[in-house]
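ok so i was messing around last nite and threw this chain in just to see what happens. nothing serious, just curious
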Amino acid sequence: MVSPPPNDPSVETRQRRQFLGRLPLPERRFLADALRTETVGGILLLLAAVVALVWANAWPHSYESVLHYTVGPSAPLHLDLSLEAWAKDGLLTVFFFVAGIELKREFVAGELRTPSAALLPVVAAVCGVALPAIVFAVANSGAGGHPAGWAIPTATDIAFALGVLAVVSSHLPSALRAFLLTLAVVDDLIAILIIAIFYSSGIKFWALGLALAGLVLFWFLHRRGVHGWYLFVPLALVVWALMHESGVHATVAGVAMGLILRCHREGDEVQSPGEHIEHLVRPLSAGVAVPVFALFAAGVTISAAALKEVFTQAMPLGIVLGLLVGKTVGIYGGTWLAARFTRAELNPQLKWADLFALSTLAGIGFTVSLLISELAFPGNATLADRAKAAVLIGSLLCAVVATTLLKLRNRHYRQLCEEEDRDSDGDGIPDVYQQDDPHWSGRPSSAGG
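result:
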């Protein structure tokens, strides 16, 4: 039977209904560049976490003294903060700034730009947040529970997940990596909303008003085409300081500035301003900001008694179950149901078991989970440390289970990756994008690919 031409509506219907299909070439190149940086950052993140654990357990007094060492001016914005607070409120703002740019780009040029493409990763992310929170709430519904920590197991850490993949040398097709990245971007948006709504207190409206005015000025200068880091960096610092003083978590300022940046190209631009700035700042976020935060946040005391508490007390057990069970079942189940409801067809080169393994990998909730552990239990270092220990153990369990599942299919993944990268004529364009098969014409496909 003769194949229909590329513009045939039936072909478009099949393309829209495919899930985890091959990425368009420009999107694949952008993804490769972004994930390369995140993978290096993930390895540094793993190293920082190990150093923090060794330091906190071998030399606890030294670790605590560095953690609580105070620097910064006290007036007028009360910025005499401990190094721990600077890492949590300052360095993580860089991380959330990049997350804001990623969100903006996904909405205007990425997988979230159309409702049909966005549906599956959005449903997966929402279910991957809701079910861990429910699992935690159930575990902490009785006497001795601590329901304030419900948001701790809801986050996905893309850098940590990619670091695990790099350490275990696991291949993963670009469609699965793209779905993981898009899922993490939506997850970050939900985490930002949770932090802004549930973990802001004692709002000072004069400071919040000035911070919003600074954001308006930031937007105006950017839209007018004004350039120069010497203008925007000082303005960003002022906005951050005002947001910190307002009582709204300071990282929200970073997200807001990231969302303001223009991420679509105009005229003959090779890169939009948002893409250019993300390219510059992402290495700082992945290679410095997040690992240093991990160094100051992951140092918890590990002992037989502490490990026993993780599996016998409601709060830490709820976190472990939320990450390992809630995340996996939420993401996998939500995606499967959404695909069934929309009649999306899975890429025939992949299996639903691959998505299950990816869902388990998404249970690694390191950076934002550690941040929320501190925000959920302010002034109670014991509970915060117990929650952090649970985050570390839950993330480790997810990493081990996901690695085992992915390794079972690693040979198949390697073959897919080799096919994706093969360039027989050396023209810089993989062969699969030059085939006559209209199914692989390089046009955007559905969610995750």
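not much to say yet. The chain has 17 helices and four strands.
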